[in-house]
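Notes from the 1:1 (GR / supervisor)

We went over the backlog. Supervisor wanted to see one worked example end to end before approving the batch request, so GR pasted a single chain during the call. The sequence is below; no edits were made to it. Supervisor asked that the structure be written out right there so they could see what the output format looks like.
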Amino acid sequence: MATNTDIRPGRHVIYNLHVHLVFVTKYRREVFNDEMLTRCEEIMRSVCKDFEADLIEFNGEEDHVHLLVHYPPKVALSNLVNSLKGVSSRYLRAEFTGRINRTTMHDRFWSGSYFAGSCGGAPLEIVKQYIEQQKRPS
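Structure output shown during the call:
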């Protein structure tokens, strides 16, 4: 359930937008260790801040990461994703050259695809019922 702190004001909008993102490494290579996941979280938290978004939750395994991001409506989700993947790829490849075999990953860190799922608020069926029950003007 959304709390009052999840609802944010903008200049012409009040919003509560959350997205669950999943990024997979190229060819699902198992490159992440705890140190890399910690650094990846730091990088992604910084990128989110640049977009005036908040990285609410982050975790991952050897070949993928999950993010829960609270973002403003002025942000195009595809732009945020491109920055998250691009910036983290550059930093991680530069800082962890011993763990990342650039040849086997064809000089790419992340897969070109990703998962994005909207989340938060009431279930869709409840929202649908609420809208259906609104009174129409006579």
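Supervisor's comment: The longest helix spans residues 77-95.
Batch request approved.
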